Amino acid sequence: MSDGEQLYDIPKKLVFHGSFDLKNDRPNVLLLLPKTKGPIGIKNFKKLIKDNFNLLEYDDVATEKLGIFSTSNITSLKNKALALNIALEKWKGIKFHIICHSTGCGIGTFIAKNNIEECESLILINPWNRKDKDFTSIQKNRVNNSKNLETVMYLKSEYNLLYSAEYIHKYKVQFNNHILNQKNKSVDVVNKEKRLKSIIDCNIGDQLHKLKLPKLFINAFDDKLMKVYHGRELQKLCINSKLITFNSGGHMLTETRTNDLIKHIKNFLNFIGR
């Protein structure tokens, strides 16, 4: 099966939760979150989004469990976005906003580009701009760790990259339990390498600066994965954009700074008239 044939076969298999709604005045939001989460999780973040907006969430975890992308040749974030875009034709003509985090920022950027008439704003949490020596080295180290470390040590290396030392210490019991619950699970090295390569190969700044819609970038000074300079570069590149940088929170702001994120998202949408 060719890439093109796969691209049109995949969308009907993607896992979504919720729906856009025209029956109330609440903004419609497409939520794009990465697979990774810690022991505290992001249920509270998703609940608060659902409480304030009409939520359509793409479930990357459930989709990956079905092996939809991992068993295909569709690996780039651009092509994943195209597959999602075909699935979104069900809601064609309905205005919506995109809230995306980490890997989701790459997919969300391409979806916004493909839905100029429908997408009203783009909110990117812990985004990156482009691959450079530092960014590429970090991602390649993650791949090497997945290949060379036992599961427990690999998970510890990931959490040390994604969360601040203070946050890990605050929830050390939960982190230890989370790691112990997964210690007998093997790391999907092949899929991990594909996913991280798709991030390295995606320079989202090249696409974002072409979009005129309102954009909000949110990041943290202590993000060790998508370092703070990425947000600064994106804000300088893009017209009609705003940057908010937290003093702390690491890479997983949806988990570590939930209430602050919701506050800034609501303020931003109110400011642009939604």
Structure description:
By secondary structure, this protein is an alpha/beta fold. It has a single domain, classed as Rossmann fold (3-Layer(aba) Sandwich). Helix content is 49%, strand content 14%. It has 14 helices and seven strands. It has a seven-stranded mixed sheet with strand order 1-3-2-4-5-6-7, sandwiched between helices. Helix 6 packs antiparallel against helix 7.
Task: Provide a concise account of the structure shown.
The protein is α/β, with parallel strands linked by helices and 274 residues long. The protein contains 14 helices and seven strands. Helix 12 links the parallel strand 6 and strand 7.
Keywords:
274 residues; alpha/beta; 7-stranded mixed beta sheet; 14 helices; 7 strands; globular
End-to-end gap: 43 Å
* CATH architecture descriptor text: 3-Layer(aba) Sandwich
Full CATH superfamily name: Alpha/Beta hydrolase fold, catalytic domain
Mean pLDDT: 90
The helical percent reads 40-55%
Structural domain count: 1
Assess the beta-strand content as a share of residues: 5-15%
What is the 3D form?
globular
Written as H for each helix and E for each strand, in order along the chain, the element string is HEEHEHHEHEHHHHHHEHEHH
Question: Structural class, please?
Answer: alpha/beta
Which runs of at least 5 residues are low in confidence (pLDDT < 50)? Answer: 1-5
